[in-house]
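Field log, afternoon session.

UNIT: design team B
ACTIVITY: writing a sequence onto a fixed backbone
BACKBONE:
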């Protein structure tokens, strides 16, 4: 048996991801052309004449055949040009790079909240299988999956903002009284700390809290259920019984042996949940007026603006490839046998 190097694993994963990326490019191009509406008519305005619309179609290259448009698009992609957005007037690369940190900060905050609750609850439910704690965790997990994120967000806003007045207004990443920190990482929490502005940090944190909880409740369900199932399987295994019979401390048995061996399915679920939340946060962004790439893509779809939609889907595909690569690397760290070639 030969152990694969990290470089070999990375190269293999990148090569296996190429067909996925190519397929995403082709499917996205075709689907955007199938959207109802005419971007030239939208850009020209309701009072435009047919001649003006035809001129704009020529300028945008929409009068060309579909294969011609596709090869032009491939050439622009090769140069790193994702086109211009008709709705914002900026390049798609600029729009994505300025909005992506907002979506990532929201998604990571939601996952942090979910992991902080899901792992302890899953472990506790496995240790107390069949008890009221176990049943409560399963009910919570079922509710988290069943309730749509937009409903959870609206419910939290109604109770905490409208009725109790303890949550800030859903005005995006910051209240209108504050200015954004200097963009270093694009994450307001980190950038405000880098500036040493604790008041701005708290303002950013309070605005992030409700949308992060909304996403986190949805992500909590699968993580808690998988943690519980994985821990139940490991706790009933022979090597755990042997470790307990050997007189090892209970915490060492639980976390040093059982939890570590249960981590692989949890990490796999974490990758799937993270990928899903990057797309699912579209609804949360609309509810909380969060200026991320999800709300940006929705606006582009409504306006039949091809370039932002294509750029959004391509960015999501690349993020998914990078995430899978990181998960594969984490497999090797958790279990070195994952890097062994038979």
């Amino acid at each position: 048996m030969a152990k694969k190097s990290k470089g070999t694993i990375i190269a293999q994963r990148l090569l296996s991801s190429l067909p996925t990326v190519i397929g995403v490019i082709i499917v996205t191009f075709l689907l955007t052309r199938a959207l109802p509406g005419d971007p030239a008519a939208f850009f020209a305005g309701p009072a435009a004449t047919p001649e003006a619309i035809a001129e704009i179609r020529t300028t945008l290259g929409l009068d060309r055949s579909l294969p011609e448009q596709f090869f032009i698009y491939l050439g622009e992609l090769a140069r790193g040009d994702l086109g211009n957005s008709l709705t914002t007037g900026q390049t798609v690369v600029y729009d994505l790079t300025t909005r992506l940190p907002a979506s990532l900060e929201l998604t990571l905050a939601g996952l942090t909240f979910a992991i902080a609750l899901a792992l302890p609850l899953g472990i506790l439910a496995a240790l107390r299988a069949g008890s009221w704690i176990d049943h409560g965790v399963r009910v919570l997990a079922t509710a988290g999956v069943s309730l749509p994120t937009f409903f959870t967000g609206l419910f939290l806003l109604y109770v905490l903002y409208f009725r109790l007045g303890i949550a800030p207004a859903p005005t995006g990443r910051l209240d209108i009284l504050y200015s954004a920190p200097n963009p270093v990482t694009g994450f307001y929490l980190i950038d405000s700390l880098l500036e040493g502005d604790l008041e701005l940090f708290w303002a950013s944190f309070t605005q992030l809290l409700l949308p992060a909880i909304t996403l986190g409740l949805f992500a909590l369900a699968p993580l808690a259920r998988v943690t519980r199932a994985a821990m139940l399987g490991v706790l009933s295994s022979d090597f755990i019984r042997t470790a307990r019979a050997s007189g090892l401390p209970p915490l060492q048995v639980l976390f040093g042996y059982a939890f570590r061996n249960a981590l692989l399915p949890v990490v796999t679920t974490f990758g799937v949940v993270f990928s899903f939340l990057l797309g699912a946060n579209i609804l949360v962004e609309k509810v909380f007026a969060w200026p991320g790439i999800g709300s940006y893509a929705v606006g582009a779809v409504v306006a039949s603006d091809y370039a932002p939609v294509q750029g959004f889907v391509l960015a999501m595909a690349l993020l998914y490839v990078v995430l899978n690569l990181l998960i594969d690397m984490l497999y090797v760290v958790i279990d070195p046998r994952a890097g062994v070639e038979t």
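LOG NOTE: The radius of gyration is 24 Å.
NEXT ACTIVITY: expression trials, pending approval
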